[in-house]
Amino acid sequence: MALQELKNNKLRTFLSLFGITIGIFCIIGVLATVESLQAKVKTDIASLGSNTIYIDKWEYGGGPDRPWWKFIKRPYPKYREMEAIKMRSQLASAVSYSINGNGTLSYNDNVLTGVSCYGVTSDFSRIVTVNIEYGRYINETDFTQGSPVIAMGYTNAENLFGTAARALGQYVKYKEKTFRVVGVIKKQGQSMLGGGGWQFDEAIVLPYRMMAGMFLVENSSPRIMVKGKENIASAALLDELRGIMRSIHRLSPRQEDDFALNDINMFSQQTDAIFGSVNLGGWAIAGLSLIVGAFGVANIMFVTVRERTSQIGLKKAIGAKNKTILTEFLLESAFLCLMGGLIGLLLVFILTKVLSAVMPFPINISLGTLTLAISICLIVGVLAGIIPATIAARMNPVVAIRTK
Fold this sequence. Notes:
Layout lengths: L1 H7 L1 H38 L4 E5 L11 H4 L7 H10 L3 E16 L2 E11 L3 H4 L4 E4 L4 H6 L3 E4 L1 H8 L9 E4 L2 E9 L17 E5 H5 L10 E6 L5 H15 L11 E4 H44 L1 H9 L4 H37 L8 H27 L3 H6 L2
């Protein structure tokens, strides 16, 4: 009967369901995009290290009002401080030191400029996720001896050798020094953290001892990374590291910290708060559309009840109960909303394909989001049809049959 209504009154039904379509499109479109973006950001944050503290002279979460003039006077984290933390810390499972730089990477006549370089110590891969596609990662002997070997990013390997697999075992030049490629890092994709993340695709990783002889450490963004043991709260790790660093720097109780302890877990919490606000905005916009759509469906149902008054009377005369008439119109109302929701989902599906082609991460509609969309359609349908269905169920069969 609902399909017959759609067939006989196409324009009226379409205009009435348009609000439902737009509402579902807004809700599911926002949720799908935000969920996909949130998953990508969380993956990028997780790549920085779980339950990890970055010791630096700068506070990563500072705003425009932060006293940069005070931070710039702070001493930079030193390699010997990393070794001291390794010896003193009871809560750390891995401690690493890293520096960053940029330079020209070349192989024969192929030259790449502005290639990022990460000089790291042996515990780096225990803190930061480094997946190797071809070959191997830098081993303990390479770190100890400061061997001229590198793990190359996937994009760099493709640009220099055509295919990433060909890079394995080749010799390349970086900052006029020759290195052997022992591994190619698995393709990571563009990080949503910008300069705050590890951009391995267009970088190279080499032992810290080797890189320290090529760059001025003080000007190479040195930092110490400390990963806590399992079941150790980040707050406890922070307190321990603060005590160790203050002891190393010989600060009196009245002196302020001259270092920053950046908790990576805080980034995830801030991300959840931001995306929560975005989701709330999407729900607000969609809510207005759904209200308009609900009134449209209710309008259809009132007209439908009016047009079928004599049929309702006839059904009741031959024994149809009130709940039977009520259920019939509620099901029809829910079906109409479901039709509008399916159109909205189709539009969202098209949107995800378009956005996935231009965004640095894929947009997916999760099963939970689909379930939510169907549930919303059914709930709105029942709410929109409850009054017209109640009127139909309470009709006097004699009066209804005589109505033209």
